[in-house]
What we know:
Elements: H1 2-8, H2 12-31, H3 41-50, H4 55-62, H5 66-69, H6 78-93, H7 95-101, H8 105-135, H9 151-178, H10 183-193, H11 196-208, H12 214-235, E1 238-245, E2 248-250, E3 253-255, E4 259-265, H13 272-289, H14 295-303, H15 309-330, H16 333-342, E5 345-346, H17 354-388, H18 397-420
Antiparallel strand pairs: 1-4, 1-5, 2-3
Helix pairs in contact: 2-9, 2-10, 6-7, 6-8, 6-13, 7-8, 8-9, 9-10, 10-18, 12-17, 12-18, 13-14, 13-15, 15-17, 16-17, 17-18
Amino acid sequence: MLTGFQNIGKIPELKRRIIATFLLLAVYRIGAHIPTPGVNNQALAAFFKAAEGTLLGLFDMFSGGALSQLSVFALGIMPYISASIILQLLTVVIPHLERLSKEGEAGRRKITQYTRYGTVVLSLIQGFGIAVGLEGMTGPGGEMVVLYPGWGFRIITVITLTAGTAFIMWLGEQITERGIGNGISLIIFAGIVAGVPNALESTVRLFKAGEMSLFIVVFLIAMMVLVIGFIIYVERGQRRIPVQYAKRVVGRRVYGGQNTHIPLKINTSGVIPPIFASSLIMFPATVANFFKDVPWLQSFANALSPGHWVYLLLYVGFIIFFCFFYTAIVFNPLDVAENMKKYGGFIPGIRPGRPTAEYIERVLERVTLGGALYVSAVCVLPTILIQRFSVPFYFGGTALLIVVGVAMDTLGQIEAHMLSRHYEGFLKSGRIRGRR
């Protein structure tokens, strides 16, 4: 593996891409510490310290701590993710968007443009909701979070937060184009990893103060190691459908005749379902959290807090739904069956054409169900255990799934660059396979 890292420096293009990725992520982390004007940061920090382990703590984790500081990047990348969800859902029901999705690169660029517009609109709405909610917030000592409430503060906050989200969206696109890996995923990855040092410091402090026993600390570390190993094992898993291609004689040459397979990933959708599910639950619950004077809204917000049975039920339901939904978008059994039939391929014992598509769809549904249950278990079970032991940070299964999945995808892309230039990869006995 050490030789693999040394080979990175021998490929100028790969080295430039990695450096560009780190520089752009550094810009993101710098922006996460630039505060929004007109906010009492000490009172806001005290408020979020009391909200650790709640939905606001989860939202703050995804934004890399930017929300608790109300920096210019406080909204994070969640408005972009929400806009992507809405566009993908509308693609199924609006014929125009469905046609665009099938027009190749030009159609994808148009849908991306619509997603950007939707991101700005959602950022304006969420920014205004945060500005209004901040005016009614107070710290533990009763001090006001907003120094000078009013329409001036609201307008400045909305413009600042919307511009910050648009800039993060641009950074993500630049990382994807000029760097290595998926830019949006890497920004979420950087936001989660940025909170690890503070989490470790809090754990060590509690251990030294005697509030957390050595057994609990060792148990949590062992649990995280086991979950990471389980995630890597399942993410590399495949259900292979055997395919045979008949021999074809063209002139004096014989084509085909080889045996291959269709690899169906156990978790085809990757980290998309938990991110989408968290985004959908966060939006209404976060808005409700800002209106403390309305009892039924507070009850609604409490029901959507991590650990509550309503939150867990909705979270698991959304994860399973998005696992099937995203898999249906990225993998079309009918197209696969038609392409196989076109080139003389067939599954042993299955007739070509529609019977092949139905067989692949049946297998895909079973594999996707197993993948959905796996993602739900990884995202929910560690969170329950961590809350039982009163861990002073939110680093549950969702964060682990995102961190491990994005790391595997990024390392897989780096290794692909190395192998394409005849260099050894990171592992001598195999390749690092990401989710895709």
